[in-house]
Design goal:
The complex is a heterotrimer of chains A (about 375), B (about 180) and C (about 475). With about 375 residues, chain A is mainly α. Helices cover about 75% and strands about 0% of the residues of chain A. Chain A has one domain (about 10-365). In chain A, helix 8 (about 200-220) packs antiparallel against helix 13. The radius of gyration of chain A is 21 Å and the shape is globular. Chain A starts with 8 loop residues before the first helix and ends with a helix. Chain B has about 180 residues and is α+β, with helices and mostly antiparallel strands. Chain B contains six helices and four strands; from the N terminus they run H-E-H-E-H-H-H-E-H-E. Chain B has helices spanning about 5-10, 20-30, 50, 60-85, 100-125, 160-170, and strands spanning about 10-15, 35-40, 150-155, 175-180. Chain B is rod-shaped. Chain C has about 475 residues and is an all-alpha fold. Chain C has helices spanning about 1-10, 20-30, 35-60, 75-100, 110-130, 160-190, 195-205, 215-245, 260-285, 295-325, 325-340, 340-355, 360-365, 370-395, 410-435, 440-445, 460. Classes of the chains: A mainly alpha (about 375), B alpha+beta (about 180), C mainly alpha (about 475). The interface between B and C is large, with 70 and 73 residues.
């Protein structure tokens, strides 16, 4: 297997410089424009963490469904899963720095109901957040560790069954913790608002972004001379395209369910969320989010040839990641900043930080293991795979 | 070429021992320049349609058009009824309540897309078709159980009873049968 | 590693079958005379159906005042049964369409029967809202068409009208999907039958299918496209059913999680029904080589995951009721768990979330009697879920002076039993007149014995 590094030393150096500089700008922003800088930091950390967590989720789902087709590029979601501890840690730092922006903080208004006061006690809230990150990191690391252990010794069936069992445990734990995390980190920004579908909505956004990142990484890594060249085929790309298309539709379905039900019932404490977002200056941003996350990908990916074209898939994946950014933005900013969108140096710095940090982190974790799980029992099936 | 054969015969039917020999034989006969041929199998066989250079069908386009017509007409019907023909204030919602129109629009899209697909498939396949010359061949009954057949029609420009029969036998046919018209 | 791969990918059909064995095994039970067991089941079903017919005739003649409804609880048994039956239908579409798209080849053993089940379940579901209209002979008024009543148009902003469109679309498309899937197998039966009326009927039904490569190619493309259309459809149907409740402002009904939660619940209950039917069918029709323990195991896993999703939704609803701080919401959920219908609530929790957890153990999944019992338990639990959602949310709403109770009358219970009669009568007839397993699909997906060379991969997936 040709082992050329996925990033050249020069690229690594310039990416590091940009990411450190933009992070420094954001840090200084905590002094100059605290609310905006912090909101951007939260968006960036959440964006990166959910991509990593999405990698773990992809691994677990593939194991539990008995999928074989993905084995050829499985090291890609594994590399994503490995960034969870770092990005999760970053998110915890951001949360610790900005607890005061959650309106329920002692200075805020939580209402008088005992359960909410208890649930949003700052220490309890932070301890929970730390627990989520630790649990995801440990289970993700275990999944990756067990996969890498297969590289040295031939696999036996018991080992595979063990992997499947671990995946099942992760999925059960993930479902509960991620639902709670999306409430604690995002819904709690707006203390009076609630929606039961929120966890699923966040899951849908995370899945779409994860698939988009997998697509981008696989296309980049399978260019001539790169480690997955000839391993990641058009058939794999086609299947990822179908998944991307269906999860994009799933995201739209969940978005519409939430919007329509709240619009239809018209209960004031619920509509507040959409009144801030769909009416006034945020309105066009919502429309942009729908176009980027569903409308454009849907019509582009519908024909079969576009799912099999590297250039089209690459562009759609980038489009979806932009859409995910807008979506994360919409979940945070109207709650912390109010009715007016703002775009300036802080937002640019956050985007620059994510765009440079993600390839650095992912390249590092991808390089830490052989690029193809050579002993996986499903590898032959995946290599000769044609849909 | 014997014209009387062409009048009495629909074609030559060759049976092959399995799906893979059938695919090979089909490719061979196609490569020999025959165009009016078709292969018959009890289940979809991978590569068979490709072996006779039949790749793309217009089915996706038909379904897409059906779906678009369904979606548009569903939405427009609701708009026309709720806004123009019969405007009623329902719980203070706007007459043109687009979120409330989406579910039915969705259903009509799926409905017409599916119908276009199914009826399009039947029409392109020439179904329903009460009779087919092949149904007169006793062995052909097995085409729906475990028989794999290739039929070359007499209407093919290259068809010649003897040469075609030889070609089919050379391609590995177990048996070559005359199919009366 | 051929060894581990074969262990990890168990065969779809056991018993070393050839292509013609498959045809014979599946078609033969239809040509034989029905067994005593079949007659027994059939007479019980018809008896239940007749009871339903009597009950329905009586309530239509008398008016639906014979139900136990009152001003506060305006929906109860009938809508519970409606949602219950629609939900059961969903597993059929899931197995035939969603699993097809996900290339789960094992589905070929069960998809035909599951699709038939969908059709019959949706028929059963339709009965209840139809009767609930009070004057079912005017049901055609629900269709938007120019009329001489004004013209009086339907209200497109009403979720109940969305239901009309969703359910009728679902019924039509399930029927079409099922029939298209049947075409090649109908031709197989035609070719097996001796000349005569039976052969003539199947010749007509199969539309002159000849199995040509072009036909198969278009057929597969359209089957894939139909699966692609049926998948969002199955989501939309129970989504729209859930919106009957969730668009309201009634605490306990208005929850944004309802659409995906109802879809998961529907598939959960449907899988339970598929398992119930399949465990019986494989014994009665001696199809043990086609519906193997592996198939049962896969369906159990799917059912377990759906059960966990439903449990997550219960938890989310309870959590948000408290987190949201809305007193009425909290009351509804406390009232569910500790009020007069607590027995129904805890039945639901135990049956849907508790007992299915046993399926985590392979030993349990391998024991057919246990799986059968768990499937029945899930069926019961999912019926109670709808009952709990509908009745406990209504019977004590905002205004304590209008609180009321609810108990079904004998007429409602008889109608419900009648719907089971209809379902099983249809299903038993289906088992007699059509192949319960998709013959052509099994042949395409399974690695069968030589003399016919093994198939490399199903062509059905090629079109993907």
């Amino acid at each position: 297997m040709p082992q050329s590094p996925s990033l050249s030393a020069a690229a690594r150096r310039s990416l590091s410089v940009v990411s450190v500089v933009s992070l420094a700008i954001l840090a200084s922003g905590l002094y100059f424009a605290p609310e905006r800088a912090w909101s951007n930091l939260l968006a960036a950390a959440l964006f990166l963490l959910t991509i990593g967590l999405g990698g773990t989720l992809f691994l677990a789902l593939a194991l539990i469904t008995g999928a074989g087709w993905h084995v050829a590029f499985r090291r890609v979601p594994e590399a994503m899963a490995m960034i969870v501890p770092l990005t999760g840690g970053a998110l915890l730092v951001v949360l610790a720095l900005g607890a005061q922006y959650y309106a329920w903080h002692p200075h805020g208004d939580v209402g008088t109901f005992w359960f909410k006061q208890f649930w949003l006690t700052p220490m309890f809230w932070f301890a929970r957040s730390a627990a989520y990150v630790i649990i995801w990191s440990v289970l993700g690391a275990l999944l990756v560790y067990r996969s890498r252990k297969q590289d040295t010794a031939p696999v036996n069936v018991q080992q595979h069954t063990g992997n499947v069992r671990l995946a099942a445990i992760f999925l059960a734990v993930y479902a509960i913790t991620f639902s709670l995390a999306s409430v604690d980190w995002l819904m709690a920004l707006d203390p009076m608002w609630y929606s039961t579908i929120w966890g699923i909505y966040n899951f849908a956004g995370m899945m779409v972004a994860t698939l988009a990142v997998i697509v981008i990484l696989c296309i980049v890594l399978s260019a001539p001379g790169r480690p997955l060249h000839g391993v990641f085929t058009t058939e794999h790309l086609h299947d990822l395209g179908k998944l991307l298309l269906s999860f994009s539709c799933f995201w739209m379905y969940i978005w519409f369910s939430q919007y329509m039900l709240i619009w239809y019932a018209n209960i004031p404490e619920e509509t507040s969320h959409f009144v801030t977002r769909t009416i006034g200056p945020w309105g066009p941003v919502v429309v942009a989010s729908l176009v980027l996350n569903w409308l454009a990908p849907f019509f582009i990916l519908l024909p079969r040839p576009s799912k099999r074209s590297r250039s089209v898939m690459l562009r759609v994946a980038v489009l979806i990641l932009v859409g995910r950014w807008v979506d994360v933005w919409l979940m945070i900013f109207p709650s912390t900043l109010g009715d007016t969108p703002a775009f300036g140096i802080w937002e640019l710095a956050a985007i620059a930080c994510v765009v440079t940090a993600a390839p650095l982190l992912l390249a590092r974790s991808f390089a830490s293991a052989p690029p193809v799980p050579v002993h996986d029992p499903f590898l032959p099936e995946s290599l000769h795979y044609h849909a | 070429m014997n014209t009387s054969d062409n009048n009495e015969l629909y074609g030559l039917l060759a049976e092959f021992p399995g799906p893979e020999p059938l695919v090979q034989a089909t490719a061979q006969v196609y490569a020999a320049g025959y165009r009016r041929l078709d292969a018959y199998a009890p289940m979809p066989v991978e590569g068979l349609a490709e072996a006779m250079n039949f790749r793309r069908t217009s089915m996706p386009l038909i379904v897409l058009i059906g779906g678009i017509i369904g979606g548009l007409s569903g939405y427009l019907l609701q708009y026309w009824v709720a806004v123009i023909e019969y405007p009623v204030n329902v719980g203070g919602r706007p007459l043109h309540s687009w979120p409330a129109f989406i579910p039915i629009t969705f259903e009509t899209t799926i409905l017409l897309g599916t119908f276009a697909g199914v009826f399009g498939m039947l029409a392109l396949n020439g179904l329903p078709r009460p009779h087919h010359p092949l149904f007169g061949v006793a062995q052909f009954k097995r085409a729906s159980r475990d028989g794999f057949f290739l039929c070359v029609e007499t209407s093919d420009r290259k068809f010649s009873l003897d040469q075609t029969r030889d070609l089919l036998t050379a391609a590995g046919a177990i048996e070559v049968i005359d199919v009366p018209r | 590693m051929p060894d581990s791969t074969t262990t990890l990918r168990p065969p779809l059909v056991t018993g070393d079958k050839t292509l013609s064995d498959v045809t014979r095994d599946i078609c033969e039970p239809m040509a034989r005379r029905p067994t005593a067991l079949w007659w027994g089941a059939f007479s019980i079903s018809v008896a239940a159906l007749l009871m339903g017919v009597v009950a329905v005739t009586y309530q239509i003649a008398t008016g639906i005042g014979v139900w136990g409804l009152n001003k506060t609880v305006g929906w109860a048994f009938d809508i519970t049964n409606f949602v219950f039956w629609v939900g059961i239908g969903h597993a059929g579409t899931l197995i035939s369409a969603v699993l097809f798209l996900f290339r789960q080849k094992w589905r070929t053993a069960v998809n035909r029967a599951a699709e038939a089940m969908t059709l019959f379940a949706v028929m059963c579901a339709g009965i209840f809202p139809l009767i609930h209209m009070g004057r079912p002979w005017l049901a055609f008024w629900m269709m938007p068409y120019p009329n001489t009543r004004g013209p009086l148009w339907v209200n497109f902003k009403s979720p109940l009208l969305w239901d009309v469109f969703a359910i009728s679309t679902y019924l039509l498309i399930s029927a079409v999907f099922w029939y298209v899937g049947l075409l090649p197998d109908l031709a197989t039966i035609r070719d097996r039958s001796a000349p005569g009326w039976r052969r003539r009927i199947f010749s007509l039904l199969c539309l002159g299918w000849d199995g040509s490569a072009r036909t198969w190619h278009r057929y597969e493309t359209v089957y894939l496209l139909l699966a692609g259309l049926a998948t969002p459809l199955v989501f939309s149907v129970h989504t729209i059913v859930s919106m009957d409740f969730a668009t309201a402002v009634i605490p306990g009904w208005h929850a944004t999680i309802f659409p995906p939660y109802f879809v998961a619940g529907a598939i959960f209950s449907g899988l339970a029904m598929v398992l119930t039917l399949m465990i019986i069918a494989r014994k009665v029709m001696s199809l043990e080589d086609y519906i193997t323990p592996m198939h049962i195991d896969r369906m159990c896993k799917l059912m377990l995951s759906m059960g966990c999703l439903v449990g997550l939704a219960y938890g989310t609803e309870f959590f948000i009721a408290f987190y949201g701080g809305n007193g009425f919401e909290q009351f509804v959920f406390l009232n569910r768990a500790f009020g007069p219908f607590a027995w129904a609530y805890w039945t639901m929790v135990v049956c849907n979330v508790g007992i299915p957890q046993l399926l985590w153990f392979r030993r349990v999944r391998a024991s057919l009697p246990l799986v059968f019992v768990i499937a029945i338990v899930v069926n019961i639990g999912m019926w109670f879920e709808r009952f709990v959602i509908i009745v406990t949310s209504l019977h004590r709403d905002f205004l304590p002076s209008s609180w009321a109770g609810y108990a079904p009358t004998i007429v409602e219970i008889a109608t419900f039993i009648g719907s089971f009669g209809l379902f099983f009568t249809c299903f038993l007839i289906f088992c007699r007149i059509a192949p319960v397993i998709a013959i052509a699909e099994v042949k395409g997906a399974a690695h069968l014995k030589k003399p016919h060379a093994p198939q490399r991969e199903s062509g059905a997936e090629k079109a993907a």
